[in-house]
Amino acid sequence: MSGTDGSDVVELRFSNKPLTDYLADRGVRVLESVVDAESATFTLSVPDTVDVRALFESLTARYGSPELVAKTERDAAVRTERRYRSELTPRQREVVRTAHEDGFFESPRACAAEDVADELGISPQTFYRHVRTAERKLFDAVFDPPCE
Description:
Blueprint: H1 19-25, E1 29-35, E2 40-45, H2 52-63, H3 76-87, H4 90-102, H5 113-120, H6 124-143
Antiparallel strand pairs: 1-2
Helix pairs in contact: 3-6, 4-5, 4-6, 5-6
C-alpha cells in the first residue's frame, strides 16, 4: 500500500499492549516522545501514587531493557498546585474553571458573575461562594504550604 506522498504505509500490530496504553493504564502521562532509527525516548510524568522502581521493573519485563536517563522530582510549586487541586471539590473546580475560561478573572472582566452563574445553572450568590472558597484554598496553599 502506498501513502498519498508516494511513501509506503505500514500497519503494525503488537502482541503486547502498546507502551503508551500500558503507561496510561497506570496513570503515567507521556509528555514527550522522540523516535529515531535506533531508539525511542519518552519523557514521562509519573504520579506520586506510582512506584517508579516498580514501574521500571514492569517495563523491563514487558518491553526489554529500557535505560533510565534521568529522574527529576517535582518542585514545591507543583506540590502546592497538586495540594490546591486536591482540596477543591469537583464543583468548585468546575465553577472556577468556567469563570476562568469565560474571562471572569480578566481586568476588565470579559463577563459578569451573573452570566457565569447562569451558564452553570446556579445563583450568583452560589457562584461567589464557590469562587471565594476556591480563592481562600488557593491562598492557603500558596502562603502556608505543607512541610514535605
